[in-house]
Amino acid sequence: MREIEVRSMRPEDWKSVSRIYLEGIATEHATFQTDCPPYAAWDASHIRECRLVLLAGGVIAGWTALHRVDPRWCYRGVAEVSIYIGEKFRGHGLGYHLLTELCRQAEAAGYWTLQSTVLQDNAASRALHTKCGFRLVGRRERIARDCHGRWLDTYLMEYRAAADEPVGYKKL
Q: Which residues of the chain have pLDDT under 70?
């Protein structure tokens, strides 16, 4: 594989990020979403820190970002992961580099739990999360319908910070 780099996502990356997101949507295994929101809506719904892109040979090949699970103060260190790898870059281990760096940065920023909801047909995503230290904590049966009306299960995967109190954790 070409030289890879992980860096912070910039607003000007949105064209590539949204294209990769649409490729993930098209698989019908990555998300229940059926369309990509405009940048302003996406930006408002994702945590500003820990937004990353992975470049392979200078081309954005994947991205990851966090979404707050619950606005209450007690859950301030818990976030949900979104991670997408571009269609032509899948199967080369790039997701591992991206998700590992996200976990490192999230822990440094004070997040103690990262969770991912993985659709039942996405074995590759379950394997990636497991390889990166996530564990299966539950299966939600018939939780939602896909775009064809078919009931699907999801797996809840969880990553816990190594330390009792992550580096960036601030007691109030």
A: 1, 28, 32, 34, 163-172
CATH topology for the 4-160 domain: Aminopeptidase (3.40.630)
Check if the beta carbon of residue 26 is closer than 8 Å to that of residue 50. no
Distance between CA 164 and CA 107 in Å, rounded? 11
- Residue 90: exposure state from Cβ atoms within 10 A (0-12, 13-18, ≥19): middle
**pLDDT for residue 166:** 58
Domain positions in the chain are: 4-160
**CA–centroid distance for 125 within its chain:** 10
Q: Whose CA is closest to 128, among 86, 97, 169?
A: 97
Predicted confidence at residue 172, as pLDDT, reads 43
* Angle at 23 (CA atoms; ends 113, 86), nearest 5 degrees: 70
CA dist., res. 1 & res. 21, Å (int): 22
